[in-house]
Predict the structure.
Amino acid sequence: MISQRRLSKSENKESLTEDASDARKQPLSRKTKKSRVQNEVEENDSVFLKLLKTSGIILKTKESQNQLAVDQIVFQKKLFQILRKHPSYPKIIEEFISGLESYIEDQDNFRNCLLSCERLQDEEASMGTSYSKSLIKLLLGIDILQPAIIKTLFEKLPEFLFETVNSDGISVPRLIISQLKWLDRIVDGRDLTTKIMQLISIAPENLQHDFITSLPEILGDSQHADVGKELSDLLKENTSLTVPILDVLSSLRLDPKLLSKVRQLMMDKLSSVKLDDLPVIIKFILHSVTATDALEVISELREKLDLQHFILPVWLHASQSKLKNKGRISFSGNQENSGQDCVFLLFDVIKSAVRYEKTISEAWVKAIEHIPSVSEHKTFDLAMLIIIYSTNAQTKKYIERVLRNKIRSGCFEEELLQSAFYIHYFVLKDLCPSILSLAQNLLHSPDQSIILFGSLLYKYAFKFFDTYCQQEAIGALVTHVCSGNEAEVDTALDVLLELVVLDLSAMRLNAVFVKGILDYLDKMSPQQIRKLFCILSTLAFSKQHEGSNHIQDDMHLVVRKQLSSTIFKYKLIGIIGAVTMAGIMAADGSRSSSLTQGKTDLSNEQYTQVTSLLQLVHSCTEQSPQASALYYDEFANLLQKRKLAPKVLEWVGQTILNDFQDSFVVDLCAVPNGDYPFPVKALYELEEYSSCDGIAVNLLPLLFSQDFAKDGSRMTSQDSDHKLVSPLCLPPYFRLLRLCVARQHNGNLEEIDGLLDCPIFLTDLEPGERLESMSVKERSFMCSLIYLTLNWFREVVNAFCGQTSPEMMGKVLARLKHIVELQRILEKYLAVTPDYVPPLATFDLETVDVIPHTSTAVSAKIRKQGMTGRGKKRKRGGNKTSSHDTLSKEDGSECDSTLPDRGQLEKDFKGKEEKTVALQNYHAFFRELDMEVFNVLHCGLVTKVILDSEMHTEATEVVQLQPPELLFLLEDLSQKVENMLTPPIGRRIPFLKSKGSQNIGFSHLHQRSAHEIARCIVQLLTPMCNHLENIHNYFQCLTAENHGIADGPGMQVQEYHLMSSCYQRILQIFHGLFAWSGFFQPENQNLLHLAFETLTNRLNQREPDQSLEELLTQSFYYLQNFHHSIPSFQSALYLLRLLMVILEKSTASAQKKEKIASLARQFLCRVWPSGEREKSSTPNDQLQALLGIYLEHTDSVLKAIEEIAGVCVPELINSSKDASSSTFPTLTRHTFVIFFRVMMAELEKTVRGLQAGTAADSQKIHEEKLLYWNMAVRDFSILINLIKVFDSRPVLHVCLKYGRLFVEAFLKQCMPLLDFSFRKHREDVLSLLETFQLNTRLLQHLCGHSKIHQDMKLTEHVPLLKKTLELLVCRVKAMLILNNCREAFWLGNLKNRDLQGEEIISQNSQASTADESEDDTSSLVSKSKAMEVDEEGEASDGEKEQDSDESDDKTD
């Protein structure tokens, strides 16, 4: 290599410039070289020069390179031989080195010796590599010269340590060290190591870095250990050398212990290192990891590595500089790029490690999986899971499982995910395909929280990544929408709707993908269709872009096509699509909205488009009452959610008001005359009008006209001048009218308040004596009339419940009373009209053919028994039970004699001649109550008892809520809470299958979020607590009056039952609210805090700034105080479950858990009101649930089971046939199987959760575990022996099922304990095995009993049980062998016996076949042989005998 060199100091600057110029311009001809050689050759008579010249090197002066005339190896051999054969050897070595030292005294000569030599390119020269080593390096390759030259170099080197680098860029110290690299052989490695380390200690920092990084290229393997130790010591002293030292340590072969020490040192310094040093440090830590310590190292690394500390300043600085320097050149660009490059380099190091080192990737995932606390999770953890997910295909399933568990447990929330995308954006953007793949897999989950997390991945991928990734995300979401899976479709549409709000311009670029969903409308629900058209309408109409015209055209085509269809399903799509489009087009531009960006007031052209579209919908639906009603409902929903432009709102208001008056309202004096089947009367008038004043709703004539139109009969002359209007449209049309008026007048409804108190043209609805004499058609007509009246009143209540004046509130309460009365009348009609199908009240259905669920079965039961159901006002929930709560099935009796029966109470009160039917199966045919209606709950509950005691006046009583109306509201509210806040787990449906009808009747509710509903319920907590306390006082007073008996002889049955039902419904609503999973989300913590504040304030005046735990504790004690007045078993179970869901949110739960167990025991020990015993699974489930709660929360499950099975059951056995246990009155002969099942299940669950002992455990732990197992086996023995008394089929089935599971747990958990406890605790093991032997023998007898009775349900458990018993025999034998007692084990025959111990005789006793002679082989341990075993490790005779008995039972 030819380099320009500095001249000596004696030469002036001019000569330096001239020579440098000449050196650049001179040609490389051979002639010129020769002339320069002649002029610049070093000439003197030193031995050093002569020997070099003889060997083939010509030394030059000034800037000329030394010339090598021969090959490098030839030179080294020649010189070596000359020196070796010299007469004065080895003295000649000293002379040679002395000459070298003299020669390099001149700095120019020294530099020449350090720079590479020039090869003479003569014709005879080799044409190989043009690179030649320097003179010093050539001399270092000669062994006899190497030590002396190294010594000379290190003596010379300090002269140059503190010199600045010359203009030619050559650093002499670096040049000297480079001579020592890659030597073929080092003669004295230890000495060289010592010299280099000494040099490093005195060198300036910039040279230290270079010297350290050169060490691996200089030293041999034998010096690695010594250098490693010295470098580790230097690392502690000088942190500025961290990077080069770690770089070198990674390249050396070092002891793992030393690496571990250095790694720990670096771990401790992670929080204080510079960002520039971080990649090297992390690389060293990861490369030093071994399989044994990988998990420990990675766990510590992720804990101490705070990337936000490093990365956030880089991103913030970058973003700030972009803002500051926008439009001009940034002078800090290099600094920004440097920081970003370090971050990229850091993640490249990590990616490389997890990609190529399986140990590291697995350890990293496990470290994240084992993070104990929610608060300890970092954005880096989430980023690492995504990185590993993208690099290792084999670990994808494992990572998905870890992610799901973390999401379920609340460790990975939206805030953490958003921070991860913000902080690690530059890393995650390269992983977009993997992120979308992960999101797609998460959306397939049935868990709502996991689906939400997957949707957030899509959202943030679209928000943070580039255009290509956005397109991929939209494509994936469209695929989900078209999948046909309800949960996926809903989630994907929600995400698309969010993205339209988030970045409308970016979404427009991908509008063509979203538009393709229009081809898949057939399988979408109405709510999904609304979302889709909202998305498309926003993209098409929010700004007038030419690029959106194709979407507008396609939407108009789809809407017109669907509206013209004669099939209701497709017409529904057209109506929803058209109304949604009109809402977006006519959105009010005066307010700022993300969906109406850039819109101003509606132009005339846009106004014409909107009105034309609405007129088109009206004309296409006017011939179908269902379609018209759907149109009115959709338009009403639009007005409720969106503010329309004033011009459109004014046009709609005029049109609606005029049409409504013409269609449904008539003058009160104009009583219709016609051939009606019943006399027409104006009923339910709230104010007195003169005969000529006032208005009325023309309901009965309209219904009659509609029925005649269906029959093809001629209309009356009075109706012939008017168009036919269906009364089906009355409630939805009124809803549209009142919302339009409210929009126009800011909520004031004075313009239409006459409709609140106006009468209705009906007939006498009370059936009286004429019910049985009516024809089927007349009864159906009356049912329809009552339904329409009920739905009218429901909409009236929806409309005027928000009016605050006392007069209006009083009228609303009166209408609620009318609703309750009409429902009572309707029940009577439905009871005798079994095949009646009511008119629809909800129209956004995929089909209009809705039939009341189980109506046929109900009617058959009515004809057979004369009565079914629970009585009044059970509209919803009877046929729908949430997955975790069986209490929604409230019809039917409680557990036999112990639980109350509503039907019996009503029969006692009313008599048996009256027939009614429950309305819970008809909820789809009632108009939905709005959430605002429940503000009526703020009116107090006043019963006659409290009214008399407090001396209220009649004027006050009018505006107060009465128990029947309160129950009506609470039942409806509880159904809404159940539907919105506790959705069923089995939400997924088969591909392309229609959905069930569980959401029918909740259309308006589903247009709100769960958070909105929860907030509404929290705001209603205060009035509901008022009602709850009043009801509590009522039952307390009732109990006091009846001397401690709530259902005493003086009780009013109907009032008692109403109060009890209200009590239960309030607890049910509280439970549904606090069990809402949304409270675990951070954004809802304030709402939970507010809820607990409300409950705490009921107890005492709350102190300011109380923590959530303090509020929770006081709320817990407030609610548990109600247990004294619980009137029914269902209410008791709801109270316990309410306390349990509150307990789940507590961090200090021990004391509260004991209180729940105490309450559960009190309820089990309580004598509940008796009633008729009906065979129903619901009360059994309730008793099972309550007993399970008691055993789960009690301190000692084994003691509780022993008390029930050992004390209470014998009390039951010794009592009369219909009596119960005196300790647990809920334990009767009919409920014994429930107690038995729960106790067996809890016993098996408890022992299965006990950890198996190990030999390393202390003696005390062994003794405690043995004692625990003794108690468990004793409980098992007590329970098993009960089958001799209670031998019913369900009891035997429970015994077979859980008996096998208990034996399996004994094998896995107890036998390892007995293995190493056998010698030291002989008597304890003996007692344990003797007891267990008797139990297993009884199980064997039970198997024989099942076979002899040929009971298929029992015998299906026999093979698995016998197999388990055989395994126990083998396991006992193995234990004996382990303890050197093999000779004490022997096998015998065990005969089949029944439950009473009698031998089962074979049918062919003389010729016993293989099947019948199941004289099972029995394993026995010889007692005598066991006694012969000495003390040294052998088992005692008692133990062996016990083992023999045990195996005796187990063999087949």
